[in-house]
Amino acid sequence: MQPPVPLWLEASLTALIRWGIEAAIFSPFSFLIGNQASGWCSSSGCQGIVDTGTSLLVMPAQYLNELLQTIGAQEGEYGQYFVSCDSVSSLPTLTFVLNGVQFPLSPSSYIIQAVPRLWTAGPALS
């Protein structure tokens, strides 16, 4: 009789595990705010983390601050950012361009209605 086949193996975690991508794989990589190139990945390149378990968009603080200023977001008491409902329709589309393929996010995809008259751009994660 053969021994049972294990269903799992124990192993120690030696590093943070995540699915990461080098933007160079998708060269050229760019990020557009409206129809304008942000220039964020021009000199040092960019990296991304593929996470299908969340819809958060996270970026370095310097880029986040520029984006929040561009969309006119105001900081709330607990680090979240808000825009007026009246301005959502005029906000720019954010577009990831990977290997020449555009992946646009409309304002309603990156802004969440928090209360009847305010929309939030989310917490400042960096």
UniProtKB/TrEMBL annotation:
Main location: secreted
Record-listed E.C. numbers: 3.4.23.3
Entry's Gene Ontology molecular function annotations: aspartic-type endopeptidase activity
Classification via InterPro entries: Aspartic_peptidase_A1, Aspartic_peptidase_AS, PEPTIDASE_A1, Peptidase_aspartic_dom_sf
Annotated Peptidase A1 domain residues: 1-126
Compartment(s) of residence: Secreted
Pfam families registered for this protein in UniProt: Asp (PF00026)
GO biological process, one term: proteolysis
Gene3D superfamilies: Acid Proteases
Family: Belongs to the peptidase A1 family.
PANTHER family: BETA-SITE APP-CLEAVING ENZYME, ISOFORM A-RELATED (PTHR47966), GASTRICSIN (PTHR47966:SF72)
Protein name: Gastricsin
Organism: Mus spicilegus (Mound-building mouse)
